[in-house]
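Hi X.,

You mentioned you wanted examples for the new student's onboarding notes, showing what a folding record looks like when two proteins sit in one file. Here is a clean example. The first protein comes first, with its sequence line followed by its structure tokens.
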Amino acid sequence: MKYYKKVAMRNLIQGILAMIFLGVTVNAQTIDKAAYFRVWQGFQKPELTSEQFLNELPSFMKNTVDLYQERALNNYIVVIPPTNRPAFIPDELALVTLHSKEIYEAIRATPEGQKYSARHWDVFNKSNSKSAAFIDYSKVNPEELIHNTAYDVIGNQINWARGFNAVFIGIKKSELSSAQFLHKLQSHIELAKSTMQPKGLLGYIIIANDNYEIAYLNWESKHAHDIAVQDAGGQAVFADAKQFMDVLMYEEAAPSQAGQTVAPGRAYSTLQR
């Protein structure tokens, strides 16, 4: 009986918190800066064919935007890796940039939020699909990167719906151990940050995995991006990456409404403005 009373009290508290947070008006100017991130790695549900999976994703993407957009969502970047990816690369990746953790959790505690949580498993494999643990790299600055962990390399609160977004996926070269790869990746991140940030790189969020890196990059403009990657410093950053990674994908996250069709080898910025 005590257990059920505790559960009831917990649910009551969650409901009150949800009403408090969801009652807060978050205007467009506030949502123009993201302070909380979810970095999703989704593997296709085994019962689905690749075609069924790709057909189901737009509906799921629309569900995501519908749930969060009015109260918390700054941008929602979705990535479909190429079909020639290794099996350890997720079938879908997403960076969800949000106003705050508190509002995110309040939304997820509502009946609509719980329904959305369950909706994941219509599309994704529950056993290995999840958001990566997240660390603020600019504060922690670890000597060794942790496997399957996301880092906010620059650490500034920015508007991910503006500027130019790009996504990079690099795969560990086979001759390297996982430890060697993560060590080289940490050094590479420092090089990329110091070289690119002064040239207009505003946001830099990565997933460090034993076998790969995923990087979400936000630039102040496409013009700034193009100049930075073509000059000597930018070429040095790409040359450094190619010493220990094979490039699987480097693509613009093109503006696209959630609900539109998706294709392998593409990235989509659903709230770009």
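Then the second protein repeats the pattern, sequence line and then tokens:
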Amino acid sequence: MLFSILIPSYNRPGTIRKTIKSIFLNTNEDFEIIISDDKSPKVNEIKNVLSEFKEYKKLTCYYQETNLGEPDNKNFLVSKAQGEYLIFLGDDDILQPEALECLSNYINKDPEVSLFTFGYTIIDEFDNIIYS
């Protein structure tokens, strides 16, 4: 597996659905998605959203019994990852449909490089671009 997409989640049931859908729209399908909810107060709402994706074998969800905090939650995700490359996404981020294909092409062009970064665009809740 080439990519592990790691999503540390906390209390965003309203946005995580859009994040997951954006990943599944990617043209490159060599990935897994691992989500770790960090004992959100809205964990039941998050479980309801994530249950919509239960048929997707590429998605694994964990629910922490205690709040680990962001660094330890990210370390937990890394410990579960199977991919050669790790991609962290926030639970309110959107991955563009060609992002993994583009990244894969860069990796193939220069396999000695071990760290790649993406550009980003900040949008508001109405999908208006604030910054790019």
